[in-house]
Amino acid sequence: MPLLDPGMDLTLRPMRYPDFYERYRAAIRNTWTVEEVDLASDLADLARLTPAELHLVNRLVAFFATGDSIVANNLVLNLYKHVNAPEARLYLSRQLFEEAVHVQFYLTLLDTYLPDQDERARAFAAIEHIPSIRAKAEFCFRWIDSLGALEELRTAADRRAFLLNLICFAACIEGLFFYGAFAYVYWLRSRGLLNGLASGTNWVFRDESMHMEFAFSVVDTVRAEEPELFDGELAAQVVRMLEEAVEAELAFARDLCGDGLPGMSAADMRSYLEYVADQRLARLGFPPRYGTQNPFAFMELQDVQELSNFFERRVSAYQIGVEGSVTLDEAF
């Protein structure tokens, strides 16, 4: 039974897609909580930011306020019901939990950074009154709505629509909008600012990278099972989608950066976004669109080796903590 066939397989044995199950297990080993992130040290940094830097931070946390909630909505409304493998749905269930942790992290971030209730309320309502954030949200909602009336993937057109939604959220939203946001965080960290935000972002970065790679592995599976879906028309649609996402994120960059900040400008962000878009196209097996190099040295440092070193230490602590048997005979 192909992965996108209508139905709801409930049997984990025999397991058709063990790779999805291993991704679920890896996500469990990556468990973290918001309470582990110390944002208190950021308050002194916020007090010494320039007005332009503070504007960037406020816009950034306003985007964070609703970004992961949008992803979670698409997960529940469109992805879970169409992926017909229980081991894949295990991962999607875990991803939904991780999105909830991200939402809690950003709630805590806003509560810490914006003690004024009116200012905080404006941040949570950013998609209504900040044009650059509203444009990104409308892009997301359009792709959520693209599957709104689709209950089963019966035809090739249905399955292409599903693939486009999946690729949009993996490559454009988690893989471009969020990566753009992470670049601002790591730019601040490179200047010794907001290390609490950066430490929490390390965990979110790890989660989002795993979400994106899971989605791409679903695409790989569908490509192997139904290669006829991956024609020139689909490739062209993906390129247009990424072009639109780059332009939406660039408008956000112009809002955040204004005339430019030390080591961060809208022009540099355009180059970075184009570089990331090409990375997403390469992972999907499509030719590059831009041929742009990464302009941010601080993002070159945020590479796989750094993350694996950090998380190997962190995850090992969790693994040690959950090994062996647990009894409740002892008094608390």
What does this structure look like?
The chain is mainly alpha-helical and 332 residues long. The protein has one domain: Orthogonal Bundle (Ribonucleotide Reductase, subunit A). It has helices at residues 18-29, 42-47, 51-79, 86-113, 117-124, 126-129, 131-145, 156-190, 195-225, 232-257, 266-283, 297-301, 304-322. It is globular. Mean pLDDT is 91; it is low at 303-313 and 315-332.
Give a short synopsis of this structure:
Belongs to the ribonucleoside diphosphate reductase small chain family. This protein has 332 residues and is mostly helical.
Shape: globular
Strand content: under 5%
Q: Tell me the major beta sheet.
A: none
CATH class placement: Mainly Alpha
Helix content: over 70%
Give the number of DSSP strands: 0
Number of helices: 13
Number of domains in the coordinates? 1
Q: Give the integer mean of the pLDDT values.
A: 91
* CATH homologous superfamily (4th level) name: Ribonucleotide Reductase, subunit A
Low-confidence stretches: 303-313, 315-332
Order of helices and strands: HHHHHHHHHHHHH
Q: Radius of gyration, rounded?
A: 20 Å
End-to-end gap: 50 Å
In CATH terms, what is the architecture? Orthogonal Bundle
Helix/sheet category: mainly alpha
InterPro entries: Ferritin-like_SF, RNR-like, RNR_small, RNR_small_fam
Keywords: Deoxyribonucleotide synthesis, Iron, Membrane, Metal-binding, Oxidoreductase, Transmembrane, Transmembrane helix
Catalytic activity: a 2'-deoxyribonucleoside 5'-diphosphate + [thioredoxin]-disulfide + H2O = a ribonucleoside 5'-diphosphate + [thioredoxin]-dithiol
Cofactor: Fe cation
